[in-house]
Structure formats: C-alpha cells, structure tokens
Design goal:
165 residues; alpha+beta; 11 strands; 18% helix; 33% strand
C-alpha cells in the first residue's frame, strides 16, 4: 500500500508539471494576443465556436463563425487567394510570421497579391458555404496548423486542473 506521504509527494509533482505546461501554453497564447489583431466583423457575435480536433484529420470546427454583413482584415497582410473552393467564396490573407487567415463565404473585389491593412474592408458575406445566412467563418493557421482565432483577439483562458480532495 502506498503511504500517504508518497501520495502527497506524487500529487505535488503532478501539480507542478501541470502548472509548468499551463504557463508555457499561456506564454504562447499571450504572444498571439499581443499582436494587435482586430475582429473581422463588428459588432461581434460568435454563432459557432472553435472546436479543436483530436488529431490532424479528426472532426472539429477549425475556426469561429461570426454573424456579419461586411468583413474586414483582422491584421495587416497580403491577399494570398481569392476564389471558389468546394462551392464557397474564399478569401485568404497571409499576415506574415506563419499566420494565415481564411474568411468564407466572402465576395470581394480584391485580388491575390493586394495588400490589406488591419481593419480595412475585405468584402461582404455571401450566401453559400457551411455557415448560416449572414454568417462568416473566420479561420486562422499558424505555420500550417489551425489555431483558435480568439487567441489573437485577447487570448483564451487556459484550463488549470486542481486536485479534487
């Protein structure tokens, strides 16, 4: 049988490891939150949250859906792609530093290569796509991996597990 003091030491070690991991995650989240991004729509109403997949090809929702009519650039960048993908009007903006935004469905007069400033108009919400009418999907990739866009808009609080007993 494990002694009470050994269980206590194990629990303290586990908590220390969890806090170290949480702090490391929070530092990365804080760096993204400090980049000065703005919401791509105003006013802001999230209709469907980001849901991280369990693995790269797993089900999830790799962005947030926002109620909108008009869409603006969340940060300075350059339009990387404008066109139809799977029946949806897509606008992709490369913000540098490995950050890429995808907005859909969005109709725009912009073309690939056009510069966009933070807060500048990008286009209007179209009717096609997986989102409901008057809703835009806002996805963000960091070095090719989808991340929760809210991390760039003030951060997402990290969960901290506490001992139960």
């Amino acid at each position: 049988m494990i002694s009470a003091s050994l269980r206590c030491v194990s629990l303290i070690a586990l908590i220390a490891v969890m806090l170290a991991v949480t702090r490391a995650d929070a530092v990365e989240g804080d760096r993204l939150a400090d980049l000065g991004w703005v919401w791509p729509v105003t006013p802001v109403e999230v209709t469907r949250p980001f849901i991280a997949p369990a693995h790269a090809y797993g089900p999830g929702h790799r962005g947030v859906d926002l109620r909108a009519d008009a869409v603006r650039s969340p940060a300075d960048g350059r339009v990387a792609f404008v066109g139809m993908v799977a029946g949806r009007s897509i606008v992709t903006i490369d913000h540098g530093g490995g950050l890429v935004t995808t907005l859909e469905p969005v109709s725009t007069d912009l073309a690939a290569g056009d510069p966009v400033a933070r807060g500048a108009p990008v286009g209007t919400v179209s009717d096609e796509g997986h989102t409901g009418p008057g809703t835009v999907h806002f996805g963000v990739r960091l070095r090719g991996e989808y991340v929760n866009p809210l991390r760039l808009l003030g951060g997402v609080p990290r969960a901290v597990l506490l001992p139960c007993c």
